[in-house]
Amino acid sequence: MRKTHRTVTALARVSRAFEYPRAVLHVARSAGGPIIVSEDDEGRRYLQFGWIGAFQSAVWPGFPLRLELDYTRAIAATLAFVPEPSRILVVGLGGGAIPTFLHAVRPQAHIDAVEIQPQVLDVARRFFGFHEDATLHAHLMDGRRFIETPGPAYDLIILDAFGARCIPPALASPAFFQATLARLTPDGAVVGNVLRKSGRPGSLMDPLWQASFPQLYAFDVEASDNRILVGLTHPRKTPRRELLARAGKLAREWGMVFNLRARVPRPMRLRAPRPATGPEQP
């Protein structure tokens, strides 16, 4: 069943490529395969890992508020949980859509963007309008190593690090999440972009997030298999009407053309933790 789902998904992407033709601007080689930059007739640029891979980024250079992929719009909605972050960490750069957006709407915030592949950082700078300055910094290093290195805490940590098919195992362990929580402010939030299970609710990452946070929220992106998780370490619950009011205020402030309120994640029911069956694996 899983193989059938992957085949159908690949065929759908090929069909979409023929329906919406794009010009290939650049192909970079990496250990994980080709990294492709393309552009459609309207000027939107796309980043893919592999020729039939999902879009990692879709950017209209020069227009950072025009988030083109629905999962990035859902990540924008998570600012309802932390409306005024002063320090933000983004693990996984892609075309730079998320850090560039955050820099546009919160120009005074200190933003660190961490990317392990030099080819990805290169194409983000050359083709997608990603530019560093006094408050936006790029770090070419492993995301886990960056988080485990002692440093200031962040109000918002966004984990958006995908390989060609999955989240790197080093970023999907209890030890990594312990290190992540150590870099989070008491009122901060951790946001994750994960993939839903084929044809089933939830994601394979849900149990790890449930074990790591006393409060967990989720939003499933209808147009793709993305699932956005928001983990909070404090027990205070914000009423949904207040979260929606915050999202509406942010949308008006930013001049959003899409419905930010509709993408605010909802609370997940946390399961009781299972008894340990062996030593923890890093």
Summarize the structure in short.
The protein has 282 residues and is α/β, with parallel strands linked by helices. It has helices at 2-19, 70-77, 97-105, 118-127, 143-148, 174-182, 206-212, 240-254; strands at residues 23-30, 33-39, 45-49, 55-59, 87-91, 110-115, 136-140, 154-159, 184-195, 215-220, 226-232, 266-267. The strands form two sheets. An eight-stranded mixed beta sheet has the order 7-6-5-8-9-11-10-12, with helices on both faces. It has a four-stranded antiparallel beta sheet with strand order 1-2-3-4, with helices on one face.
Spatial gap, N to C terminus:
31 Å
Arithmetic mean pLDDT: 88
Based on the coordinates given, report the CATH architecture. 3-Layer(aba) Sandwich
What would the principal axes of the Cα set say about the shape? Answer: globular
CATH superfamily: Vaccinia Virus protein VP39
What percent of residues adopt helix (DSSP H or I)? Answer: 25-40%
Strand content: 25-35%
Determine and state the CATH class: Alpha Beta
GO biological process, one term: polyamine biosynthetic process
Protein name: Spermidine synthase
Organism: Pseudomyxococcus hansupus
Pfam families: Spermine_synth
